[in-house]
Amino acid sequence: MEDNFNKHLGSKLKLRRLALGLTQTKVAKAINVTFQQIQKYEKGTNGVSSIRLLQLSNYLKVPINYFFEDFSEYLINLEKSQEGHMNVNYNFLVKLYSELNAEQKLKFNKSLQISGTGFSKAV
After folding, report:
1. Average pLDDT of the chain?
2. pTM
3. Is the sign of the CA dihedral 63, 66, 72, 75 positive or negative?
């Protein structure tokens, strides 16, 4: 599956690069790698690290999930999450929330109110 994803990501990268009229060299310089590395990414020979993926996403002005769109494993998991079959680790979420400072908690709660989601004060 990893090889398939590398090829998928590479084709999405190439498609976006060409759509923006960019060369491999220009993209490479923007994320501080060689143009050969961009070639390897595009061919699916090399995997892209998470930090490089973030850099590519920012430089190419696409959300990170752009690189996952149309990938079968991503779509299967997306469908499961929309159907409510994905397990949510609520303990982890509560731990994260508890580590926020007062200002962060206020912003978080406001964003939940804006989205129409209720949030229990029991946390």
Report:
1. 82
2. 0.59
3. positive
